[in-house]
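Lay summary. Proteins are chains of building blocks that fold into shapes, and those shapes determine what they do. In this project we predict the shape from the chain. Here is one chain we studied, written as its sequence of building blocks.
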Amino acid sequence: MATLSPIVLILGSGPNIGQAVARHFGSKGYKVALVSRSVKESESTDKQLNIPSDFSKIEDVVKAFTKVKQVFGTPSVVVYNVSASSLSPPDDPFALSYSDFNKDTTINIHSAFIAAQQAVQGFSELPSSASKTFIYTGNVLNVQILPRFISQGIGKSGGAHLIWAASAAYKNRGYKFYYADERKADGSPKYRVDGDAHAELFWNLSSDKEQGPWMQTFVKDVGYQKFD
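And here is the predicted shape, written in a compact code that computers can read:
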């Protein structure tokens, strides 16, 4: 049943970023749809919808959007907080099996593309006052090599390009697209990221009326910072 409350759809609802974003948006009056392999549909409430899904299957992404629309309505904020990485030897990246590479790139790129495609279809149905924001949780791998993470690096680079292209293509329609990458104050990578810092950034991005810098490198308690 549709609702007048705004809806955030969080694809990848892990215990750090996913849950922090859910709490933050929920506290602001949003209804929350959580999608992951571990959530239990039986634990859904009138304010939180749990949708078990496997992001290595792109059809599961479509099913998640369909379910949210049936139960809550069309989401105005979509967070793609999913990542996959199968480690390779640092001196032999092509030792990684194609099966693992294919699974990782499906999750990091293909399912993200389907999610963005579904989000855009939904945004077109929403009133002009709706947020219409899509956020991809990224990291430094679109601009830096970490030898053991070739599949994730290719995936995040693909995701970053997807967001960059979308931020330009849909800007005039009022749709916002962001690639979020938490950093340390000096701009170096932050490997133990802060869920609450992500939640605050995501809230601010969703509340902004216009598209900001698509690559949101940010620092906890500071916000967006442009790094070379």
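What the prediction tells us: The beta strands are 7-11, 31-36, 48-52, 77-80, 133-137, 176-182, 215-219, 223-224.
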